[in-house]
Design a protein that fits this description.
- By secondary structure, this protein is of the alpha+beta class.
- The strands form 3 sheets. Strands 7, 8, 9, 10, 11, 12, 13, 14 and 15 form a 9-stranded mixed sheet that branches.
- The longest helix has 13 residues.
- The chain is elongated, with a radius of gyration of 22 Å.
- The chain binds uracil.
């Protein structure tokens, strides 16, 4: 891919376009061992070797991170009042990253953060019905009748019933533990489905999205890059859907 030098560096998180223009003009950047002073210089992102302040900068068109979202941060790129999941990405990363989908502020668990809009669209499109699996703690005794109702679809106050969902009861009692597989992603869907059967979600965590499972070694707030195998699995599987 051919790309302007200032955009190349700014995409790779080295600073804003205008900062990069200044750095290039001031001689902080070299291409294939030679200082380059023109920000508009076109770079072949696969072949050319770019260094910034003596440090090599390779170009990744798309980046993919898995985060174990903690409670208390919002699934947004920026927010005037709240801390966002992007604020938690403290490593120097490329610009243009966004969370693929939303979890409520108090929900934990799997969040994909990427700059790949095509993949995000395929994962989130209501037409694609990508499975999302949640673990939840519920106030009240979750029963087989609840599972039967979820399997048929419930009225959560929208124009249509929810799509059939699979409810597995891990334990039931005063506080029940469940896993719920949804094929759609409506606003507050898990909480509203339990509300519809007279129960309250007191803890919610997403553990899987399509072919991607949460790495349980990540503590809330931690993240890591997806492995090549995970990216391949996610992209090839969601492409087919
Ligand atoms: N359903 C909810 O109610 N909240 C979430 O964050 C995700 C699914």
């Amino acid at each position: 891919m051919r790309i302007r030098l200032d955009k190349y560096l700014s995409d790779m998180g080295r600073g804003t376009r205008s900062q990069m223009k200044k750095e290039i003009i001031n001689g902080s950047v070299s291409v294939n061992g030679k200082a380059v002073h023109r920000p508009e210089t076109k770079i072949d992102s696969e072949k050319d070797k770019v260094t910034f302040c003596g440090e090599s900068v390779t170009y990744a068109r798309y980046e993919y991170y898995m985060m174990n979202k903690p409670a208390g941060v919002v699934s947004a790129v920026s927010d005037k009042r709240e801390r966002t999941v992007i604020d938690l990405l403290t490593d120097r990363t490329r610009s243009g990253l966004f969370p693929a989908g939303r979890l409520d502020k108090d929900t934990e668990g799997l969040l994909l953060i990427t700059n790949d809009g095509g993949l995000a669209h395929r994962l989130l499109s209501p037409k694609k019905h990508v499975d999302k699996i949640y673990f939840a703690k519920i106030k009240g005794c979750v029963t087989k009748e609840d599972a039967d109702r979820f399997a048929l679809g419930v009225d959560i106050g929208d124009d249509s019933l929810t799509l059939p969902a699979k409810l597995s009861i891990c334990s039931s009692g005063e506080i029940s533990e469940i896993r719920l597989t949804l094929r759609e992603g409506r606003f507050h869907q898990v909480k509203r489905m339990f509300q519809a059967v007279g129960k309250e979600v007191i803890y919610l965590k997403r553990v899987q999205m399509g072919g991607l499972a949460l790495d349980e070694t990540l503590r809330p707030g931690e993240y890591r890059r997806l492995t090549e195998e995970e990216v391949e699995r996610l992209c090839s599987r969601e492409r087919k859907l």
